[in-house]
Class I SAM-dependent methyltransferase (Hymenobacter jeongseonensis), 261 residues
Amino acid sequence: MRLRLRLFEFEDLPWFPAVIRAGMMDYLRFMISTLGTYRPIAPLLAEGLRHTNQTTVLELGAGAGGGTETVLRALEAQGLNDVRIVLTDLYPQPAAWADIAQRTQGRISHEAAAVNALAVPAHLLGFRTLFSAFHHFPPDAAKAMLQDAVRAGTGIGVFEGAGKHWVELLLAWTVLPVAQLLLTPFFRPFRLSRLVFTYLIPIIPLCTIWDGSVSLLRMYSTDELLALAHSADPAGRFEWQAGKKQHSWGPEVTYLIGWPK
């Protein structure tokens, strides 16, 4: 799919109800974690951590923390047993994050204050990552985010849980909405509001279908990712690579990763 459209996503809108956004994030977290979406990029991230001598992953735009536990376990499988992850977001999800922190005995923690991925506070250290979030940023903002990482001299990896294919758009309209309706009662932590706005007033699934479709249409290609990186780093201070990693069972992850030379 070569088409890239800058349509809006509901979860990006400041006025969008927090209870609906939380319900959508809970679904994404469950699906990304259950499917192990980001497991294929663990060797890349492990290489970046080793290259920069980091033991902390600073996750920007973390949403509800979907897939973070899978990434932690995958990094441990790469021999990084002392790694920890800190979750941050412009719209923090403290309830969801507290649940993750409890399950991981604090290996995954969070920053309570809102964090702007384009201007990360100096006290938040670590190898920066974005999962399923880079497409939210238009080119100027995406470039600014990469520039901020270069300026700080820290590594950064952005990962999208799709290969940007038309079949993925078809799944977003058919199979995934059915899965959401079947699986919602099993999401944790339990929220009565999630059931109300999924089954009685189906705002959560409808907004999820729209945002999921738009996410694919807004995704950058690997060539566009590299162009953004080189534009953000004209002096060539970082080593950059972009590409796709494939699961053994089919799905792809699109990535851009860079660290100081």
